[in-house]
Amino acid sequence: MDETLLQAYRDTEYLVCLDTVEWACIRVDQALPASLRRMVDVSAWGFITAWNPLSEARALADNLAAQRALRADLQIIPDASMFAAIGIGRGGWHEPSLFVIGADQPSLDVLGRRYRQHAYVHGTGAEPARLRILSN
């Protein structure tokens, strides 16, 4: 992954839908917002998508099908819970995503690679959000 794309991941706002009007914003290398810390408690969590593999835009229908498949894969993880989310980058780039509580890094690595993602954001409990790079 080149420096420009890496910086784009770091600059992205990772937004989690808390209810019909409230969103929480995750930023790489920053602590989780209080609203998410309460939800997560001490659990592993991740912010992941199946949209636009390898950061290449693709057709809406393909993205929707991949995201449905990702949701189904996440539902298999015991005790995992999912919340609607979206990553919004500079320049208009955005990707519907999922905030998952109860999915550990090895599980997210498998899914990130399966859906050909360069990276995802994750952590455990209230620790700062970390960018997990899956490709070079």
Task: Explain what the structure shows.
The chain is of the alpha+beta class and 136 residues long. It has four helices and seven strands; from the N terminus they run αββαβαββαββ. A seven-stranded antiparallel beta sheet has the order 2-1-4-5-3-6-7, sandwiched between helices. Strand 6 (119-124) and strand 7 form a beta hairpin. The termini are close together. The mean pLDDT is 94.
Write the layout of secondary structure elements.
Layout: H1 3-11, E1 13-17, E2 23-26, H2 34-40, E3 44-48, H3 60-75, E4 81-88, E5 94-101, H4 105-114, E6 119-124, E7 130-133
Share of helical residues: 25-40%
Rg, rounded, reads 14 Å
Low-confidence stretches: none
Measured between the Cα atoms of the first and last residue, the distance is 5 Å
Number of strands: 7
Oligomer: single chain
Question: Helical region count?
Answer: 4
What fraction of the residues are assigned to beta strands by DSSP? 25-35%
Biggest sheet record = 7 strands, antiparallel
Shape by Cα distribution: globular
**How many domains, as an integer?**
1
Structural class call reads alpha+beta
Trace the largest sheet across and list its strands: 2-1-4-5-3-6-7
Order of helices and strands: HEEHEHEEHEE
Mean pLDDT: 94
Short descriptors:
single chain; 136 residues; alpha+beta; 29% strand; seven-stranded antiparallel beta sheet
